[in-house]
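Section 5.1 Outputs to date
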Amino acid sequence: MRIASFVILTAILLGVSGLSAAEQPKQAALSHTKHGAQTADHCIPGETNSAPPAMTPIPNAEADKQFAQLVTEVITVTGVVKHPLVLRVDDLKKFPVKTTKGLQMTCLDGASKGRMPMLRGALLRDILTKAELDAPGHNDVKRMIIVATASDGYKVVFSWAEVFNSSQADGMIVYYEKNGQPIGNDEGRIAMVSTKDIKTGPRHVKWLKTIEVKRID
């Protein structure tokens, strides 16, 4: 049963982008490189390939101007929920605070890109709890996935089990501050990361725009 469920879930997750497993990393890299944005190797314009330990970007006014077009001030929580949400930074600050420091950023290919500074935000689980999943049937939640999308079209997927039935959820942070300051144009104002992933780069979502709950039928 577990094997069958995994196969079905994998097929659905791949269907979110409409690409094969082999095509997805290539397409993501091409898309985000086009925008000068998040790429498969987690490098951005104005940042060296061997990022400093604290992941401090090298100043680049042109890149910052380009990022300004991607900045999101608001995120929406929609889909199979009873209470759709529209959240600004001030709204996110009302949730229980979650912080993390020194997160190692590792790319899909295993390359290390340094460590994140102190991040401050809210857990994805707490946000979805407020939105309340619309799952009247006993097993409905088991068929739900959560898709987080950035303003440049980058998407990552979480399963219901990860968010609500796993310690993994303690590291799924929607964050709005780095080292006590609002996050800059290169990521936000609102971003997301899954700190407990082995490779943390792929589910690091800059310019977070939407969180959508979907039911697998």
